[in-house]
Amino acid sequence: MKKIMVLIVALSVFVGVSSSAYAHSGRTDKNGGHNCSAKSKQKGLCTGYHYHKKK
Predict the structure, then answer these.
(1) Mapped to the 3 state alphabet, what secondary structure does 1-55 carry?
(2) Pairing of strands 50-51, 33-34
(3) What is the C-alpha to C-alpha distance for residues 31 and 50, in angstroms, rounded to an integer?
(4) Which region is the signal sequence (predicted)?
(5) What does pLDDT average to in each consecutive run of 10 residues of the chain (55 residues)?
(6) How far is CA 37 from the centre of its chain?
(7) 33 has which bridge partners?
(8) Is 50 within 8 Å of 31 (Cβ atoms)?
(9) CA 41, 44, 45, 46: dihedral to nearest 10 degrees?
(10) In the chain, where are the structural domains located?
């Protein structure tokens, strides 16, 4: 039973860390924002400058 609990906790931590680590590929300015690329605009993902973290 202990081994199962350890496995569940380890998987939960791994999934939580890995999903938040890839939230954005980088290249944000000191405020945590950036301008959208032309490719992102074409896909309708964003329209201009936006933030990836709260101020």
Answers:
(1) CHHHHHHHHHHHHHHHHHHHHCCCCCCCCCCCEECCCHHHHHHCCCCCCEECCCC
(2) antiparallel
(3) 10
(4) 1-23
(5) 86 61 66 86 87 68
(6) 17
(7) 51
(8) no
(9) 60
(10) 30-55
